[in-house]
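User: My notes are a mess, but here's the protein and copper (II) ion's SMILES. Can you give me a structure?
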Amino acid sequence: MGLKFRHGVMIIVIISASMFSVSMANKDWFPAFNYTDWWSRFGNHPHNKTQQEPREIVVGGSDHWHFGYNYSDWAFKNAPFYINDTLVFKYDAPSATSFPHSVYMFKSYESFFKCDVKKAKVVASPVQGGGEGFKFVLKKWEPHFFGCGERNGFHCNNGTMKFAVFPMLRPFWQWP
Ligand SMILES: [Cu+2]
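Assistant: No problem, the inputs look usable. Here's the predicted complex:
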């Protein structure tokens, strides 16, 4: 009886372990999510109580917000992002020589994946990216799906102007 029970538990452990590895394999769809980061935050580590300052991050770095730059890759390389960090979207206002861009936020991963701009809400119009840029503060502990809304999703799809961010709770100790 006891042996059977233990056997059953082992099977459950194996199944959940394999499910975990499946979800790990799928984590590419959400590049900004960092598992090791979770461990450093909630694991049992000695730490000092220094709160790190929120960052202001220019989306795309010196490339700013334009057609054809791989923003998913950018988000992956610049992760982790934290709550109260500010994303700065910089793009020129529409002119004779530049294409208009904008910032939309998708409500679900599905609409983000398809660049379904009809199911997204406008967070910045084509004229809001000039000067210091449009600033978006990551206030909520939830996935944020950003994309350019221009040309009915063409910039988002073909121009790879899309990325996802899951802001983390900022650690109370110094980052190594
Ligand atoms: Cu665009």
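Strands lie at 56-58, 86-89, 103-106, 120-124, 134-137, 144-147, 162-165.
User: Great, I'll file this with my notes.
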